From TrEMBL:
<feature type="transmembrane region" description="Helical">
    <location>
        <begin position="12"/>
        <end position="30"/>
    </location>
</feature>
<feature type="transmembrane region" description="Helical">
    <location>
        <begin position="374"/>
        <end position="395"/>
    </location>
</feature>
<feature type="transmembrane region" description="Helical">
    <location>
        <begin position="307"/>
        <end position="334"/>
    </location>
</feature>
<protein>
    <submittedName>
        <fullName>MFS transporter</fullName>
    </submittedName>
</protein>
<feature type="transmembrane region" description="Helical">
    <location>
        <begin position="36"/>
        <end position="59"/>
    </location>
</feature>
<dbReference type="InterPro" id="IPR050171">
    <property type="entry name" value="MFS_Transporters"/>
</dbReference>
<keyword id="KW-1133">Transmembrane helix</keyword>
<feature type="transmembrane region" description="Helical">
    <location>
        <begin position="130"/>
        <end position="152"/>
    </location>
</feature>
<feature type="region of interest" description="Disordered">
    <location>
        <begin position="408"/>
        <end position="447"/>
    </location>
</feature>
<feature type="domain" description="Major facilitator superfamily (MFS) profile">
    <location>
        <begin position="4"/>
        <end position="399"/>
    </location>
</feature>
<keyword id="KW-1003">Cell membrane</keyword>
<feature type="transmembrane region" description="Helical">
    <location>
        <begin position="280"/>
        <end position="301"/>
    </location>
</feature>
<keyword id="KW-0813">Transport</keyword>
<feature type="transmembrane region" description="Helical">
    <location>
        <begin position="212"/>
        <end position="231"/>
    </location>
</feature>
<keyword id="KW-0472">Membrane</keyword>
<feature type="transmembrane region" description="Helical">
    <location>
        <begin position="346"/>
        <end position="368"/>
    </location>
</feature>
<feature type="transmembrane region" description="Helical">
    <location>
        <begin position="71"/>
        <end position="89"/>
    </location>
</feature>
Length: 447
């Protein structure tokens, strides 16, 4: 990977490092430190998600028209301002406004940075670029969370202000890094489409007519509902209330998730390169099915607490293995499906599907936990995991060889593959990309 790509990935890792300082403590900060109550804390998290859901359908077109750089800079500025305000304000309306501003900024960054990766990678190295960014984001958030836990004190509001100031500065660092790079010129129709271009009309309709992309968005929703959407509510509640683990053990389980990602990411990358992406995603569904079955079993043997605890920790570890398998497959697939003039909108559409999964997941998990419906909860998530496998195999039937296994296809032929669905134009993974590894490059997102 080029030096510029590495530089931007470093900036993104530092931004993730800043987010790691605050993400685990948002609820506690609002509910207890600012003494605004649990209901306000819940509303703050909802405002964060709602702002993201509002901006994501709009930002894709802006990226395609103006390019990803100004959008990413605007997102970094908004996220920085929101984080700073979060640490300074103390009343409910202002905290809600700060949360919405930060949520919108972080959401805008996701498709913009993902589009930069597409601009600065080729079909042969894109999987590694996305896997590297996922690894760095997880490491940044993990280290940030660890250091934040050493600094924060629930009885001293100033320590939380320090955390939010660090996060704000790190978003500014990301913006500063972006200002130092020069993205490769987009070639052909991959260039930003001018305002008023007829090619913009019906862009979202074309995306919705693209069966493979629609299936991938549905798959993305189920993936994020099944895994990330349960990390904040359903799974922790199940672990504490049913398995009987302590909150300290829950923290160790989260560490196990991050550790597996860190240790397995590049080993997994070597194993999945050249494999069919749809088959890799289908395997993730089976791995997560085993993870949820392990969680279910942990709640059935309270008399064997050590075994139950090990089973629940293995659930988090298996999630990490699945995440490591998804990072070099799903995001590059979005790029390879996109017509080159619509890369921004495809990335925004997939980010919207992910955000919906992350928003709906905690609501469903929290509701079922509140009702004590833990058996139904495990059955639902096992079914969702099997749904991931079924959707991935169905998706594979709608992918070309170049889209499903690009590295294998490059070994067979150096020619570009045919288009897919109603999008007959050049693909972002083919004609729109430089054939040599770019000298200047780009980066990726939180998510």
């Amino acid at each position: 990977m080029g030096a510029t790509l590495r530089r931007i990935q470093l900036g993104n890792a530092l931004a993730a490092f800043g987010s790691g300082f605050t993400v685990p403590y948002l609820f506690i900060y609002v509910a207890n430190v600012r003494d605004l109550g649990a209901s306000t804390a819940g509303a703050v998290l909802a405002a964060f998600a709602a702002a993201a859901l509002f901006v994501l359908p709009l930002v894709g077109r802006v990226i395609d028209r103006r390019g990803p750089m100004p959008v990413a800079l605007g997102g970094a500025a908004a996220a920085s301002a929101g984080a700073l305000a979060f640490g300074m304000v103390g009343s409910a309306p202002y905290v809600l406004a700060a949360s919405a501003l930060m949520g919108a900024g972080v959401a805008v960054l996701q498709p913009a940075l993902a589009t930069m990766i597409v601009r600065c990678s080729t079909a042969s190295n894109r999987s590694r670029a996305f896997a590297t960014q996922f690894f760095l984001i997880n490491m940044g958030m993990g280290v940030g969370g660890l250091l934040g836990g050493l600094i924060v004190d629930e009885h001293r509001a100033g320590t939380f202000t320090t955390l939010f100031c660090v996060e704000s500065v790190m978003f500014l660092v990301l913006g500063a890094v972006l200002l130092t790079v020069k993205l490769p010129e987009a070639q052909g129709v991959d260039a930003a489409v001018p305002d008023g271009s007829g090619q913009q009309d019906g862009g979202w309709r074309r995306l919705l007519q693209h069966r493979a992309m629609v299936l991938l968005c549905v798959l993305g929703f189920v993936l994020f509902f099944t895994c990330y959407g349960q990390f904040e509510s359903g799974l922790p509640a199940y672990g504490v209330e049913v398995t009987g683990i302590s909150t300290a053990t829950l923290g160790f389980a989260l560490f196990a998730n991050t550790a597996v990602i860190a240790l397995a990411q590049f080993v997994v990358l070597r194993l999945v390169e050249g494999r069919r992406r749809s088959r890799v995603i289908a395997l993730v569904g089976l791995i997560w099915m085993v993870a949820w079955l392990a969680a279910g079993l942990s709640g059935m043997i309270p008399h064997l607490q050590a075994v139950a605890t090990a089973l629940l920790i293995s659930t988090y570890a298996l999630f990490g293995l699945g995440e490591a398998m998804l990072s070099p497959t799903v995001a590059p697939l979005v790029a390879d499906l996109a017509p080159s003039r619509m890369v921004g909108r495809y990335n925004s559409a997939f980010a919207l599907a992910k955000q919906l999964g992350v928003a709906v997941g905690p609501a469903v998990g929290g509701l079922m936990a509140a009702q004590g419906a833990y058996v139904a909860y495990i059955v639902l998530l096992v079914g969702c995991s099997l749904g991931v496998t079924a959707l991935a195999l169905w998706l594979g039937r709608h992918l070309t060889a170049e889209q499903d296994a690009p590295r294998r296809s490059l070994l067979v032929s150096s020619g570009d593959g045919p288009g897919q669905g109603p999008d007959a134009g050049p693909r972002s993974g083919a004609a729109a990309q430089p054939q040599a590894e770019p000298k200047t490059g780009q980066l990726a997102t939180a998510g």
